[in-house]
Amino acid sequence: MDELIRTIVEPLVEFPEDIKVSREENERGLTYILSVNKEDMGKIIGKKGRIASAIRTIVHAAGRAHQQDVQLTIQE
């Protein structure tokens, strides 16, 4: 799942070396935490949050394909 998130995010940012993906397990399932360079934050969120929403939808769907509840959090 880390690689999926990186594959989606890398073409969107100017500083791909600053992409960090960490994983946290909780009672609801898995939560992936995405961190990017501060200058790339707007590109990841997009207008009205559309890009962030699309990335979250893809990650959630990929998790469902593996019978897992997966969420994505974008950290500033």
From TrEMBL:
Report keywords, A-Z.
Answer: Cell shape, Cell wall biogenesis/degradation, Chaperone, Cytoplasm, RNA-binding
Top-level lineage group: Bacteria
Q: What is its main location?
A: cytoplasm
Pfam families in UniProt: KH_KhpA-B
Subcellular location field: Cytoplasm
Output the InterPro entries linked to this UniProt entry: KH_dom-like_a/b, KH_sf_prok-type, KhpA
The subunit field of the Swiss-Prot or TrEMBL record says: Forms a complex with KhpB.
Q: Give the protein's biological function.
A: A probable RNA chaperone. Forms a complex with KhpB which binds to cellular RNA and controls its expression. Plays a role in peptidoglycan (PG) homeostasis and cell length regulation.
Q: Which family does it belong to?
A: Belongs to the KhpA RNA-binding protein family.
Name the UniProt record assigns to this protein? RNA-binding protein KhpA
Q: Which organism is this protein's natural source?
A: Scopulibacillus daqui
